[in-house]
Specification:
alpha+beta, five-stranded mixed β-sheet, four-stranded antiparallel β-sheet, 23% strand
């Protein structure tokens, strides 16, 4: 699934191709991709809108239009491509936006899990899906005290909590493994048992890991690619996720399930310590 760095890469790639273009027509080949409003209303409202900018909130792409925000979640395997309007429909193409300049933006999704919302400007943060999201990794409000308050009394494993988008948005499975490895924290450790220092280290590594991944365009785990096949390189620098041996101590990397998610960690470098503060 594309995570924050991958979505950021898609955003920056598409900016060069679609900003300033007017949506002249739209073709929806799979109605379930439109989450809100109805398909008919979606088509009616988006026609003749210009793409002013593209933003990101968590794992959501935010196409800023004249009067609306088009929110798009890629889910497992969603991709965007730029093509000529007259080129035939692609296999697994779900939505096609025709621009007035003769080009088109095609949304392609083999799994058909992606979703789109069209929300009036000024209301995008007050309703689903964005109103349920937590802090961005670089929000100044993301502090050790914030985590202490959010984690208080929770016995869930820290790996599970890192994936909770209502606390910190944008962290996915791959990056959570990397963050915890660099923090020397066992993924099964209850989040309420973290020390002040561990909470501070987690925040530091959330930012450093995601920043580095963005610089490298994310990963190509599974089938991720950004618009026009721009592949990420961060998969070449993964420490534990889908790895065999620990880069620090050469111990065998263990794979377990945490909250139903495949989780990789080093049993030596990430021992489960029962400290609490």
């Amino acid at each position: 699934m594309p995570e924050l760095p991958e979505v950021e890469t898609v955003k920056e790639t598409l900016k060069h191709d679609v900003i300033g273009k007017m949506i002249e027509d739209i073709y929806i080949y799979h109605n379930n991709v439109i989450e809100y409003p109805s398909v008919e209303e979606f088509i009616e409202k988006i026609k003749n809108e210009n793409i002013v900018n593209i933003h990101r909130r968590g794992k959501w792409l935010m196409f800023e239009l004249d009067h609306y925000y088009l929110l798009s979640h890629l889910r497992m395997e969603g991709k965007y491509f730029i093509r000529n309007n007259k080129e035939p429909k692609l296999l697994h193409e779900l939505v096609k936006f025709n621009f007035s300049d003769g080009t088109s933006l095609r949304y392609h999704d083999t799994r058909k899990f992606g979703k789109m919302h069209l929300i009036e400007k000024g209301k995008e943060l007050a309703r689903k899906p964005l109103n349920k999201l937590g802090l961005e990794p670089w929000d100044e409000k993301l502090t050790e005290k914030y985590l202490k308050e959010k984690y208080s009394g929770k016995k869930l494993p820290i790996k599970t909590v890192l994936l909770d988008q209502s606390m910190i948005t944008g962290i996915g499975n791959i990056y959570a493994d990397e963050i915890l490895f660099l923090s020397s924290i066992n993924p099964l450790k209850p989040c309420s048992n973290l020390t002040k220092k561990e909470r501070e280290t987690i925040i530091e590594n959330i930012r450093s890991v995601l920043e580095h991944a963005i610089e490298l365009g994310g990963t190509t785990i599974r089938t991720f690619e950004s618009s026009e096949g721009v592949h990420g390189l961060f998969q070449n620098e993964l420490y534990v996720h889908d790895q065999k041996t620990c880069p620090k101590c050469s111990s065998e990397i263990i794979k377990i399930k945490v909250g139903g998610r495949g989780t990789y960690y080093c049993p030596k470098c990430q021992k489960k310590k029962e400290n609490k503060k």
